[in-house]
Amino acid sequence: MGAVPKKKPSRARTKRRKAVWMQLKETKLVPCPRCHELMVPYHICHNCGYYRGIQYIEIEETE
Questions:
Q1: Cβ count near 45 (within 10 Å)
Q2: Closest CA to 42 of 51, 33, 55, 53
Q3: 39 part of a folded domain
Q4: pTM higher than 0.70 for the full model?
Q5: DSSP H helical segments within 1-63, as ranges?
Q6: Strands (E), the chain
Q7: In this model, does residue 63 exceed pLDDT 80?
């Protein structure tokens, strides 16, 4: 049988550990295949509203 912790880690300790890990994580940006604006991968493009060829958000063009 493997090692088992004696006590459950507190919420504060868990959140503190996750917060440091998120600070170290670098956000990557990729060009949108439709409008070529930079976007977060696996998210809807905020410029054109498309994700994987399907329009999810209708963007009003202001000119």
A1: 22
A2: 51
A3: yes
A4: no
A5: 11-24
A6: 30-31, 38-39, 50-51, 54-55
A7: no
Give pLDDT tens digits for 4-57. 989 999 999 999 988 888 777 777 899 999 999 999 999 999 999 999 989 998
Q: Which domain holds residue 57?
A: 28-63
d(CA 10, CA 25): 23
Residues sharing a CB contact under 8 Å with residue 44, sequence separation 6 or more, in sequence order: 50, 51, 56, 57
What DSSP state is assigned to residue 30?
E
Nearest to 33 by CA among 22, 25, 21, 41: 41
Q: Is 50 part of a structural domain of the chain?
A: yes
